[in-house]
Design brief:
The protein contains 2 helices and 8 strands; from the N terminus they run βαβββββαββ. It is mainly beta. The strands form 2 sheets. Strands 1-8-7-5-6 form a 5-stranded antiparallel beta sheet. It has a 3-stranded antiparallel beta sheet with strand order 2-3-4, with no helix packed on it. Strand 7 and strand 8 form a beta hairpin. Pfam families: DUF1203 (PF06718). This is DUF1203 domain-containing protein.
Length: 156
């Protein structure tokens, strides 16, 4: 199955850029990138050395519920283009050896038995296999080191 890597919604990014609060009701922190490990979740590209970025709490779910994990993510401080839906592994995942891949049901619950650490080059195939299941609606990609949300994967 072909898969699509999806960035955070532009509407959400625009709200943050406009001074909106994060998932915890706090203002994002503004920082300057040292060029190492600052992946923007909107354009799915790394924030380059010397560029400003925002650090804030993000919950990739519309409603609060037991499986609605919240955690830190980064966003370019200045508006950037949306990554769009891409079939290729995004820049923010390249150069990292592996990620946590986990399937979710249509009611936003973790589907037990779908989670695991997967080599980066195997992510599309593993996500495709999960999305072939009737009980998996979409997949989250998270850092295998820090559990930070990276992006969402849906069927093409």
């Amino acid at each position: 199955m072909s898969v699509l890597f999806k960035a955070i919604p532009t509407e959400y990014a625009k709200a943050i850029w406009a001074g909106g609060d994060d998932a915890y009701g706090m203002q994002p922190e503004r920082r300057v990138s040292d060029g190492d490990g600052v992946p923007c979740r909107h354009c799915l590209r790394d924030v380059r050395e010397g560029e400003s970025y925002l650090l804030f709490a993000y919950r990739p779910f519309t409603k609060l519920q037991a499986f609605a994990e919240t955690g830190p993510i980064f966003l370019h401080a200045d508006e950037c283009g949306h990554a769009g839906d891409a079939e290729e592994i995004p820049e923010i995942m390249q150069g990292t050896p592996d990620f946590i891949i986990r399937g979710y049901s249509c009611d936003d619950r973790i589907v037990y038995g779908t989670g695991g650490v997967v080599a980066t080059k195997e992510v599309p195939a593993r996500a495709g296999a999960l999305l072939n299941r009737d009980d998996v609606a979409y997949v989250h990609v998270r850092s295998a080191r820090n559990n930070c949300y990276q992006c969402r994967i849906e069927p093409r």
